[in-house]
């Protein structure tokens, strides 16, 4: 009997030690995980004025002979030192962001971090922001959040310009419309103010193979259309109603930021090229992001802000697939 008591006490002590070790190991693993997460995150700041200056100097140096080139390099060094001494801390700044959107607007998590970083330094009424936008739209909630992130800049009185070199359609245009000014390349695609949804239904195929599907819901319209079950006229009508409600919200959001738009004429789901969009009021100027930024560099200090976070392999594969699907959906666009 005493043997069993001693053995039980031994097991209890061993179990206690094992549990304590597991708790310590879990705490250590969690701490290391947080450290790794911090290491994966990066906020990169690049002064674009320096980039343009270096490009100019490289071209000038390349067009001279060896002796003249050496003299020019010495001159460049003196100019750089003098410019650093005379840099005006009160000079207005432009914060440059780049957003390339896929169907899920996956970059929105980076965008929110970049804008939060800008708002810690931007001076209301003095500094500006430029977003180089390239997106054909996608999920309503995702692009609604992306547009709301850009609205944070306007709410803080930071003048916002969106530059569209290729495409800002549907959810992409929802984002662009938040800006004080939209600059589009002549053949950039803009507009597509509409909502689309499609869903396959294989119910008849399943019936032919004697497969029954049971769908139970609490709430009349918890499920309107379904892939496997039999769709009803009431479900289809409700689905169309929801699309129309989303379209009305889309138009209301555009009206808030661009009240001059004739939405009865423009909110048809059609898209236009930059040359066509200008007289319709969809954009404010024609031009490329390159010219826009180079012109601004004369009077502003330009800082490109980019937040990055290393994603796990599974996430990177998913993003690559979505990016490929996004290109397929738009590949037939002229």
From TrEMBL:
Transmembrane segments: none
Coiled coil: none
Gene Ontology annotations of biological process type: proteolysis
UniProt-annotated location(s): Cell membrane
Keywords: Cell membrane, Hydrolase, Membrane, Protease, Serine protease, Transmembrane, Transmembrane helix
The keyword Amino-acid biosynthesis belongs to this UniProt entry's keyword annotation: no
Pfam families from the UniProt entry: Peptidase_S49, Peptidase_S49_N
Top-level taxon of the source organism: Bacteria
GO molecular function: serine-type endopeptidase activity
InterPro entries for the chain: ClpP/crotonase-like_dom_sf, Peptidase_S49, Peptidase_S49_N_proteobac, S49_SppA_C
Domain Peptidase S49 positions: 153-299
SUPFAM superfamilies (UniProt xref): ClpP/crotonase
Gene3D superfamilies: 2-enoyl-CoA Hydratase, Chain A, domain 1, 6.20.330.10
One cellular component (GO) term of this entry: plasma membrane
Family: Belongs to the peptidase S49 family.
UniProt-recorded name of the protein: Protease SohB
